[in-house]
Every structure is written in C-alpha cells, then in structure tokens.
Design goal:
- By secondary structure, this protein is α+β, with helices and mostly antiparallel strands.
- Among the domains are: 4-100, no CATH class; 140-302, P-loop containing nucleotide triphosphate hydrolases (Rossmann fold, 3-Layer(aba) Sandwich), CATH 3.40.50; 330-371 and 382-433, no CATH class; 451-567, no CATH class; 767-890, Methylamine Dehydrogenase, Chain H (7 Propeller).
- 32% of the residues lie in helices and 21% in strands.
- The chain is built from 26 helices and 37 strands.
- The strands form ten sheets. A five-stranded parallel beta sheet has the order 2-3-4-1-5, with helices on one face.
- The longest helix is centred in the middle third of the chain and has 22 residues, at 483-504.
- The N and C termini lie far apart (82 Å).
- The relative contact order is 0.05.
Length: 929
C-alpha cells in the first residue's frame, strides 16, 4: 500500500514538472487531509486557516491537478484518481528528480552567477521581479532568529538528556532553524540524525531507519531499543513536522490511532532521568502526553513571522520590520503592531484589508448588516481601554480562532494559561470576540477597528514627518458612499486621526501652518496635477483635515489642482483661492437653514426640502444616488412640502404653490418656475398627493381639509372637517379616497370621484389612546394607535387589532402605502423602530437624527426607504437593512462662501453652482441649468 506522504510528495513533484511551480503549503495540507478522509472543516481546524480559505483553495487545487493529470479531479474522487495513476506519477517524479540533478552545476565565480537556491521559492512572483541584490539571500532565512538558535543550542548543550519540543505555527521558520542547528551542534553529539514525520509514522518505523545502529540491542522491542540508544549514546534524534501524526484538534497534539505507539514511548522517555542523548521534536503543538512534564521536557515556541510572509519585500524593509517586531521574542508587542506586521507590506493598505476580508469575509458581511443602533453600542464598547492580557490575545485572534485548548498550548511571556483564559472571557463579555462552538474569533467590528487603527497610525506618522505615501491613495472621506459608510469612515479614520494630530498641534496657527506646509509639499512634488487617476487623494485629504479643524481656507491656495473626495459641506471656504480646480466627487455645501420641511415621493425617486428662509431644493434619484435637480427661493418660510411623480407642492404663509419641474410630469408642458398658486384661508399644516399626481390635498390649522383636481384645475373638496389642526393626510392607492386625522382622536374619510363627499370611516374614534399615524392596506383604512394605559402600540383596522410593540411609547408613526411596513419613534429609547407586518422578522432599531424626535416619518410604497426629518436634519434610511443612506444637515447661520473664487473650476454641476452663488461663491464658467 502506498504511503499517503509518498503520494503527496509525488503529486508535488509532478506538479512542479508540469506547472513549473511547487504546491503551496496550504495546498499540500488540503491534499494530505483529503487523502486521510478529512473534511474542509477538519483541515482548517488542524491548521491556521479558516474554513472559507480551505474550501476555496481546495476547489482551485482540484482544477490545478485536473489540468496536470488530464482528468477531472474532485475531493470525492481524489483517492481513486491518484491510486490508479500511482505508477505514472512515480515515473514522472523520477524524471523530474533526474532533471533536477542534471541541472545542478558548480557556478562560475567569475561571472557572479550562483546555483538556484531552494529558499528562492519563498519570494514568489514578487521576488522574481526584484533585483537579486534586493532579495533575501540564504543567510537571511535565519535573520532575526539568531537568539532562538542560541536558546535552542543552550538547551541541548547544558540540559542534555531532555526531550525538547520546538513549537510554532505554520510558516514560523522551524525547519530552517533546525537545519542550522544540526550544522552548528554537530560537534556536541556523537551523531545527529533527522527524519520527517512521514518517514517515521510509528516507533517501529523509526527503529527500522536506525536498524544498523540498533543491532547491539537485538531482542528488545523497537521502543525499548530506541530508549536504550538514547540512554547510552550521545545522539541527537530530530523528528520534524510531528503534527502530521496528530489528530485535527487545534493545538492539542493527540496522536492518530496509527501512531499511538509514540505516546507510550514518549511517556517512558519523559520519566527517564539519565539519558545521554536528546530527542528534538519539531511540531506546531506539543504532544499532549508531554504536557505535565516540566523537568525533562523543554519547550521553545517561535512567533509566526517568516521569510515566507516577507516575500516581495525589499531587503532593508524586511530587516527593519523584523528588528522592530523582535522576532526572537515574544508577543509583548501591541496587537496593532502585530496586525500591522502580519498584514503584509506596510506601504500597501490593500494587502492588509484584503487579508482581513479574505480570512473574515463572513464576519465583515455580518458587520455590514449590523443596524445603526448596534453600531452605537459597539462604539461605546470600543472606547474602553484594553487590559495587558487582552492586548496580547487580540493579535492571535486576528490570525486564527482560538479555543481553550489552544490557550493552554500558547507560551506567552508574563502570562499563565489561567490568565489568558480569564482575558478571553473578558473579551467575550465586552463583545470583542464571538464564541462559535468553543472557537473564539475576533468580532467583525473589532476587525474594522484593527484596520482603521493601522491607517491612523501610518497616516499620523507620515504627516508628522512630511512623508505623504499613504495620504495619496487612502481617502479619508468617502463622498459618494452611503451615509452609514461615510459615518463609519469618520468614526474610525478621520476623527481619530484629527484628534491625534490635535494633541500635537494645539493652536489654530500650528494647525494652519501644518496643512499649508503639506499642501506646498504635495504641489511641489507634482502630485494633484494631470489626468484623473486612482490614488491621488492627498490634497483632498489635507483639506478634509482642515475642515474637521474648522480652519479658514483662505490660507490654502490650491488653484489649478485636482481635488478628489473632498467634503466642503461644513468647511470655512470664505475668501478661498481655488481658481481653475478640477473637482472629482466633491461634497459641496447645500445652503438650507433650520426649520426644515421634507417630503419624499412614494416611489422614493424624488425628495423636496424647504427651510424657514423660503428656499426649496429638490433632488432626483433613489438614495444614496441622489442628485440636486433644482432650487427656488420663495417669500416667507416653508410650512409644508409634498412630491410625487415629479410634481411638487410647497405651502408658504397662506398659499399652496404647485410646480412641475420634470418635463415628463406636467400634462401640458413643463415649467421652470412655479406654475399654479392656490390660495388657502389659514396656515397649512400638511400636504399630500395621490400616487398619480392628479389630486393634491392640504390640511389647515383650523381643521379644514381642501383638495384640488390638478388635471381639471379646480377645487374638489373644501369643507370644515376637524375641530383641531390636521395632523396627517393619506390618499388611497387608487386616489379615490382621502383620509385625515387631527390631534389623535378622530379620523375622517372623503371620496373624491363622482363628487366629493364624506364617507364613513371604519375607525372614527380612538377610545383607548390616541392615533399617531394612519394608512391604507388595499381598500382597508388602518391606524396606528398608542395605548397610553398599557404602554402598547397596536395596528387597528375594521376587523382586528394587531400588537406592534410592547412595552413602548411611540410618539409619531407612519406606514408604507402597501400597509406592510410600519415605522415609529420610541420616546423612551430615543430611536426609530421599523416593524414589518405580517411576518416574523424582528423589528429594526435605528438611532436616527442623533436620537432627536423626528417631525416627519414617511415610508416608500414598499417600505424599502424611510424618510426621517426634523428642523435640523433630513435622513433617508434603508427600510430592510436599517442603514442610513443619505443625509442633509441645516447649514450654520454663520456659514458663508463670500470671497471664495472658483472661477474656471470644473466638476461642479450647474444647479450646484447656482446654489453656491447664493452663498457668495464666484464663478465665471458658462452654464445651462
């Protein structure tokens, strides 16, 4: 029967011959595990890989082997395919080995050439592209490991007779260290022999390898003969890669059934006190049978940092980072530094983020689905300081999940296993790690925090030393991203960076001088000029930092520059010299003052916002892809707005203005100015359109309800209705009926076709509490009622009552036009609740508008968009995921763009230019609104 290790070796040689490249370590482990009948999960738990990484790599491996062998290969048929082709594999492998031997020659020192070295395989494609002088040479395999080598030598020389276990994760550099050791310690032993674990899977196999040396112990069992050899001779026996004989149990070294003979043999050796020789076991984990031995068993662990992880790095950079991290050592470095080092090249943020995303993709996806309310709680958690033991544990959690068994195997200076377990429990209580069936992994939000800390650390170091590498390609502001992503970027990157810089540059003068000096450096280097390309955010980033400090922009002359991803919405741009600039994806100020009034079309593709100064601005598109479509200045404050299908209604003092700004919306012709003015007898409290845009209704402070037929341009309803001001108007989906309610106790309905007349409302009175919202579900009128006595919110129609929330006190609510989604503001919790009806889906809790009470709650027809607004801010949220997609804040009353010169600048939409001109910004470019 062919040994599995032989099959793995043959496949590797054949693949090398065919593809001119060796299989990766993870591919060898997947191949070996699959031949042993292990699933992807078992293979992942046995190594340092995640399940997704093993599964994806395995699928790629089967395709590679299929191309080499000329037959379809899968995990299920792998054993049969290889066993039937074992003879051809041996033949091809022999040819490959023969080719290798014939290709090896003695290099000619005169031409500077050298024979190929096995360690060159560590460098991969990136290393091949580098000059030979810049790649790590042979001696660099042990660079930074000299201290480990000396420790290992001292252990074997001084404490001869011990069993020594050299541990460390995969790719920790154990094998090169052992190779150097066997060469350096040869004079201290009579003989040094070294075997790979697959060569000696049993004690009998080990004895067979040494049968010539064991002839004097004829008649003894293999285990006893080997014991006598080490008792009487000064031999060093090395067994490498011992973990291949273990069962897949994380770091716990439990031998497989075929290798259990080692347990008895190691137990006997560990109880011996007078051995002349030594046994060196090289393994990812200490064998479990040796756990309780301290006097006769020595342990040395290596940190997982190797030349393999440094592939493609310049030599000087690799040495610098090896020295900084103290590879001989210890894990006393901070978790951020270890993540920084393990993430890859420090100049490539993409490497680090790709590593985190590939290893924790499911976690990141869960984080992106997290509601804003949960994010708020996590921010409070992450503001807490980490204890020393927590700081040590977090890097390991970045690298792989840990179990309690893993913690017992970790050797970390200054901390006992019990302390590590307590630290892990503390991290779990603080929700920084997740427990998945006994495996603890870093929480996705903590992963984001790790990456963000890496960015901030590097950017801070560069800004303080006038080095601007990362600043050119790492945008601090995501201007076109949904609002929740912009807030996340602000929370984890821009905000901490600005706060850290402010501790070093205290005064406005120092901050202004810093930004001015860095802008001059960027412009002097020629950056920020020429065609648009990826990775040129430096000038925009510097301006974003200045805006966060509220510095006056008049000191920063950026004329003729290209500004990418710059947020000027709250920047002090008065007297700013920025002529002939090219703006790429900017966020520019929208001049709206407080007392905002907002409305969204039922299709969520139109949005109108008005303010107390009489300015009305409207956007088209679906959030987050909203674009300013126009604006207009009215006389007097805006009292209410409504929009549907491109038709807008704006209520001022005692008139309602109708406007068709969209060419496709007006029945006759579009209009660039307000088209129709409809007088009213009292101040307007609310407006509403039917979905088709034919009928417009207005509710007045006097309780009167008025409706107009816009197609016929005539009034179709005008009568006293309520005794109190009208709170809300809602049209039936077909536009045939209109429902209204006042302060919360009475609902009325009117039919608008075939002559307007009142009709009986099935829910005329609120007997148990007060109405806080109304809507239609098909032909049925429904209401959301707050039960003050029982602290309950119910959905009422003519046939039944359905509880929505308990206990809860809602102050305002709205429902989608299909009646399947309800949203309300919870006074006690200070949050908005989105509750799907008729489904078992849990409610979505969002902390909107900074926890302030909304004046407007409006859902789109299907409930996938939620408009929230008060006098200071307007937001649009996703009704299913609970993420904020778009927001607009009221502009500070002191905000002014007077003296700002943007003459000749491009990249600013015409409507946006017109808005900026109202703020005093100067343009000279021709435009057509």
């Amino acid at each position: 029967m062919t040994d599995i290790e032989e099959i793995v070796r043959l496949v590797d040689l054949v693949y090398l011959r065919k593809a001119k490249a060796s299989l990766k370590t993870i591919e060898n482990e997947i191949l070996r595990g699959s031949l042993l009948g292990q699933g992807y999960g078992e293979i992942a738990r046995a190594g340092i890989y995640t399940y997704d990484t093993v599964r994806v790599t395995g699928r790629q491996l089967w395709k590679k082997l299929g191309g080499v062998l000329g037959v379809e290969v899968s995990k299920s048929n792998l054993g049969s395919v290889l066993s039937t082709r074992i003879d051809s594999l041996r033949q091809m492998a022999a040819e490959e080995e023969a080719d290798d031997e014939s290709s090896v020659g003695v290099p000619d020192p005169s031409d500077g050439s050298a024979a190929p070295r096995p360690e060159d395989a560590f460098h991969g494609e990136a290393g091949q592209a580098m000059p030979a002088a810049e790649r790590l040479d042979a001696t660099d395999i042990l660079y930074g490991r000299e201290a480990d080598l000396e420790r290992l030598k001292a252990t074997l020389q001084v404490d001869r007779g011990q069993i020594v276990v050299l541990g460390g994760r995969s790719q920790a550099g154990k094998s090169p260290l052992v190779q150097a050791l066997t060469e350096a310690i040869v004079d201290d032993f009579e003989r040094v022999v070294r075997f790979e674990a697959f060569q000696v899977p049993t004690v009998a196999a080990l004895a067979e390898q040494l049968q010539n040396e064991l002839q004097e112990f004829v008649g003894l069992s293999p285990a006893l003969a080997l014991e006598q050899l080490l008792r009487q001779r000064r031999w060093l026996v090395v067994i490498d890669s011992l973990e291949h004989l273990f069962q897949p149990q994380g770091l716990a070294g439990v031998f497989r059934e075929t290798s259990t003979c080692y347990e008895h043999w190691l137990h006997q050796l560990a109880n011996q006190s007078r051995l002349q020789g030594s046994l060196l076991l090289v393994s990812r984990a200490i064998p479990q049978v040796l756990h309780r031995y301290r006097r006769t068993v020595a342990r040395l662990d290596l940190v997982t940092v190797t030349v393999h992880q440094l592939k493609g790095w310049p030599l000087a950079l690799a040495r610098q980072w090896v020295e900084r991290q103290g590879v001989s050592a210890t894990l006393e470095t901070t978790w951020q530094q270890l993540l920084h080092f393990c993430g890859g090249h420090p100049e490539l943020l993409a490497t680090t983020t790709d590593l985190i995303l590939s290893e924790h993709r499911n976690d990141m996806a869960a984080f992106l689905r997290m509601p804003e309310r949960a994010l708020w709680q996590w921010r409070l958690v992450l503001q807490q300081e980490l204890t020393p033991v927590e700081r040590v544990l977090l890097p390991w959690l970045v690298l792989r999940p840990l179990s309690y068994a893993d913690l017992r195997e970790l050797w970390i200076p200054r901390f006992l296993p019990e302390q590590l377990m307590d630290g892990l429990e503390s991290l779990e209580r603080r929700h920084l790690v997740d427990d998945d069936r006994g495996l603890y992994s870093l929480h996705p939000l903590a992963l984001v925090r790790c990456a963000a800390d890496l960015w901030v650390e590097q950017l801070f170091d560069e800004l303080c030393h006038n080095r601007l590498d990362w600043l050119h390609w790492c945008p601090l502001v995501l201007t076109h991203a949904p609002a929740w992503q912009q807030q996340q970027q602000q929370q984890y990157v821009l905000g901490p960076l600005v706060e850290r810089l402010q501790r070093q540059y205290l005064s406005v003068a120092e901050q202004t001088a810093l930004i001015g000096r860095l802008i001059a450096c960027v412009r002097a280097s020629g950056q920020g000029q020429g065609p648009v390309g990826q990775g040129d955010y430096a000038l925009g980033n510097l301006l974003n930092i200045a805006a966060a400090w509220n510095l006056p922009f008049q000191s920063f002359d950026v004329s003729g520059a290209r500004l990418q991803q710059v947020n000027l919405s709250q920047a002090n741009i008065a007297n700013w010299p920025a002529r002939d600039c090219e703006f790429v994806a900017p966020v520019l100020p929208v001049p709206v003052s407080r007392s905002l009034r907002a409305a969204m079309a039922s299709t969520a593709d139109w949005l109108v916002v008005g303010d107390r100064e009489g300015r009305v601005i409207w956007w088209s598109g679906v959030a987050p892809a909203l674009a300013v479509a126009g604006h207009y200045q009215f006389d007097g404050a805006i009292a209410a707005v409504a929009v549907t299908a491109g038709v807008m209604a704006i209520a001022t003092q005692q008139q309602v203005v109708v406007w068709w700004p969209s060419p496709a919306a007006r029945p006759n012709s579009p209009s660039t100015t307000p088209s129709t003015s409809l007088p009213v007898a009292a101040p307007v409290t609310c407006l509403a359109f039917d979905p088709a845009g034919r009928y417009l209704a207005a509710g007045l402070e006097t309780g009167q309800v008025i409706a107009w037929d816009l197609y016929r341009q005539e009034s179709c309803l005008d009568r006293p209705s309520h005794s109190y001001p009208v709170n809300q108007l809602v049209f039936k989906a077909d536009g045939t009926q209109l429902a209204s309610y006042d302060l919360g106790r009475r609902i009325l309905c009117h039919r608008l076709v075939d002559g307007a007349e009142p009709v009986a409302a099935p829910l005329e009175e609120s007997f148990y509490g007060s109405f806080i919202g109304i809507g239609w579900q098909g032909n049925a009128l429904c209401a959301i009622e707050r039960m003050d006595s029982t602290q309950q919110v119910i959905w009422r129609d003519a046939q039944s009552n359905q509880p929505l929330a308990h206990p809860a006190i809602w102050d305002l609510a709205g429902c989608s036009m299909d009646g399947l989604t309800v949203a309300g503001y919870d006074i006690d919790q200070g949050q908005v609740v989105i509750q799907p009806r008729g489904a078992e889906a849990p409610p979505i809790l969002i902390r909107a508008l900074g926890g302030q009470r909304p004046d407007t709650i409006q859902l789109s027809h299907g409930g996938d968009r939620l408009l929230l607004g008060n006098e200071n801010q307007v937001q649009i949220w996703h009704g299913v995921t609970g993420r904020c997609l778009w927001q607009q804040q009221a502009t500070d009353t002191a905000y002014s763009g007077g003296g700002c010169d943007l003459s000749g600048s491009s990249g600013i939409a015409p409507w946006q230019q017109m808005l900026l001109e109202t703020m005093g910004v100067r343009f000279t470019a021709n435009r057509t609104p």
